[in-house]
Design a protein that fits this description.
Elements: H1 5-16, H2 24-30, H3 35-41, H4 45-66, H5 74-85, H6 89-97, H7 105-127, H8 137-156, H9 165-177, H10 193-196
């Protein structure tokens, strides 16, 4: 019976996201295959980590596509993106925590492309008057991705039920990102009496 590479990669991310230095033996056990089979699929640790990273970026790109991020109502697009991204939250957690990935120029370019797509979504929402303008679109992008990653870890550790994940992200993120009236002023834009004197 042929081994499904994606199944092996998902088993790998469940181990590596919490134990980045885990041995290949542990990953093989989690995938229910022998170390020899793992080695036939991925010639070494670096190749395995790169493939997990590529899978994560491909899945997140597919979630952005599914959500039609950057088109129409930005709040609705974020809600669709959450629903599309949550099933792969653990891959997002891996992407957020595996610094070794970003030594690879191709991985880094793909990552920058996904973050840029998020950035455009939040910028569109700011232009539509949906999202707060005192929070930069770049920061909203980073915060959103990190929140999805955090949900991946919380589900893995049993602190959050998978069925509650999309609701938890949507409520927490939009609770802080949606425009309010009046909007608070960020500390960097505040002036004090001392500044004016």
């Amino acid at each position: 019976m042929a081994t499904d590479r994606d199944t092996v990669l998902e088993a790998a991310v469940s181990v590596l996201s919490r134990r980045p230095t885990a041995h290949l033996d542990e990953i093989a056990r989690a995938a229910a295959i022998s170390r020899a089979t793992l080695h036939r699929l991925f010639p070494g640790r670096e190749a395995l980590i790169r493939e997990v990273g590529l899978l994560g970026l491909q899945r997140f790109a597919a979630a952005l596509d599914t959500a039609t991020a950057g088109e129409g109502d930005a709040e609705a697009a974020v809600r669709r993106l959450v629903e599309a991204a949550v099933p792969d939250a653990m891959l997002c957690a891996f992407l957020a925590g595996e610094n070794q990935l970003y030594d690879d120029e191709n991985i880094n370019a793909l990552w920058e492309s996904q973050i840029e797509r998020l950035h455009r979504l939040f910028l569109l929402g700011q232009q539509q008057g949906v999202f707060r303008i005192e929070l930069s679109a770049a920061w909203l992008s980073e915060a959103f991705f990190d929140l999805v990653a955090g949900v991946g870890w919380a589900i893995q550790d049993g602190r959050l039920a998978p069925r509650d994940a999309a609701f938890s992200i949507t409520e927490l993120f939009l609770g802080g990102a949606l425009r309010r009236s009046p909007s608070p002023t960020p500390p960097s834009a505040r002036t004090t009496e001392t500044d004016n004197s």
